[in-house]
Amino acid sequence: MTTVVLVHGAFADSASWAPVTRLLLDAGHDVRVPPVPNRSLSGDAEYVRRFVEQLGGPVLLVGHSYGGAVITVAGVADNVVGLVYVAGYALQEGESLGQLQGGFPDSDLAANLVYEPYTLPDGTDGTDVSVRIDAFPAVFAAGVDPRTAEVLAVSQRPLSALAFGETATAQAWASKPSWGLVSVEDRTINPDVERFGYRRAEMTKVVEVDGAPHLVMHQNPQAVVDLITEALAGTGS
Question: Could you tell me which of 211, 236, 235 has the C-alpha nearest to residue 87?
Fold first, then answer.
């Protein structure tokens, strides 16, 4: 059986996948949802790649948002049979999040980020980036139950600023079949960023979910599960 590995993005953690995880488990799928460190693109991709390789059997990698960039690099693992991007960044090798996002600047995210310094284990300084708690429900979780959005806002996992400028060292979609979901009402990532990356990758199928916010996994988990199910069928799983 193919294992579905769900990779969360920035400003979120594994719980962001909870509605989709529940539906997949109910349908009898083998699912894993690893906690991504959100420290650097290369480090996060290496972590996910090793996690996937330790599973041994075939894996379908599913990445949301920044998680799309992570699976783009980690997906070169030999046992990855396919990739699914959910409102995600489908980077090209040598391209950074900032470069791809910069070509389509019309999102509400940049004006609502908070930067906080922290010290790395080696004594050097770093910067954590998160979404303003008061802006989180509208920018990141529009369409999600307000009480749930409040919980997500205060439990978000920051992303190191390093990750925005680090370039992808691989593009797994060039050698693995891929599928993409566009959140049409996304206010975190311009939906055209998603469309551009998916089109460039020549994905097997791209679906657009009308009215979907960035956290489409909460607002319309069934649409996400339907695409994952189709990808599993497309990889012979």
Answer: 211
- For the chain, counts of helices (H) and of strands (E): 10, 9
- Are β-strands 30-32 and 3-7 bridged in parallel, bridged antiparallel, or unpaired? parallel
pLDDT for 17 equals 97
Domains of the chain as residue ranges with CATH? 3-234 (3.40.50.1820)
Output the CA–CA distances (angstroms, integers) from residue 61 to 3, 4, 53, 75, 135, in the order listed: 9, 6, 12, 7, 30
CB atoms within 10 A of CB 211: 12
Which tokens sit at 29? 């799928």
Q: Are 175 and 109 in contact (CB under 8 A)?
A: no
Residue 96 in contact with residue 171, Cβ under 8 Å? no
For 95, phi and psi rounded to 5 degrees?
-110, 145
Handedness of CA 50, 55, 61, 65 (dihedral sign): negative
Ranges of residues in the chain whose predicted pLDDT is under 50:
none
Give the chain's radius of gyration (CA, Å).
Answer: 16
Q: Are 93 and 168 in contact (CB under 8 A)?
A: yes
211: left (phi over 0), alpha (psi -120 to 50) or beta: left
